[in-house]
Write a structure and sequence with these properties.
disordered C terminus, globular, about 85% helix, about 290 residues, mainly alpha, about 0% strand
Length: about 290
Amino acid sequence: ILADTYFISAGVGSNGIAALNLALPAYSLLNGIGLMVGMGGATRYSILRGEGREDEANQVFTHAAGMAALLGILFTAAGLLFSWEIAGALGASGQVQELASIYLRTLLTFSLLFLFNNLLVCFIRNDGQPNLSMAAMLVGCLSNVVLDYVFIFPLGMGMFGAALATCVAPCIGILISSTHFLRGKNSFRPVLHQLFLKFKIRNIQVYLHIAGAAGICLRAGAGTAGASGAAGAGISRAGTGGLHHGRILDRLVQRIAHIHKLIGHIADLVVQLDAHPAVLLGHYVIALAVGNL
């Protein structure tokens, strides 16, 4: 994104840099969710492997991959169908909205790759290959810098070229991460039939704890997006409606904070339900009714 900022400012102009800042919440959201699923799942995977529960550890990877795939499909559909509306909701208008929608459409179309890149980096790091995980991240980021220049200047692809360069980075990261599997170094593998098993209360407990613990990544990402988006809103006052945009991002950060807190409460409830279902459920309902949550 830093490379995008420099090359777009030089190659597209002020409207381009304003559009980029307005599109940053989508980028932060993708990476925040990818890290939330990846870090949470990889942490649980390591705990189970340490306890010698290999089958359950593989189930964690399977469910984390399935969650990333589902979210990636939803984000891709949103980008293909509603990129113009999303750009408008973030405060863009006129030429800035056109440029922002181009960036958002391209970025969200590659959602699956962003999510799976973060997922694999986290699991491979916890599978005893931190150097490979770091190499995948660094090479992907450096390729973004090089491709930004190539796509924007020699090829003249403008805003689309900047977005495409950003989207190629996770592709390269996944290719490097795939060597972990090609060399047979992986201890984790998907267990496809587990994707279709009915949920048990203990499984729900595990994944709510994963989401509650790792959800801080998403919250922090949204806060960063709010700050950068507010900065972008001031760059092109005529095109973005900066004050309205800032209020939208503030509300987004607050909503994510509330969701993160709620996930923690639900995780605690499920843990308690596993021991004393009837009594604790009654206490929870009462507390919810009086607003003590």
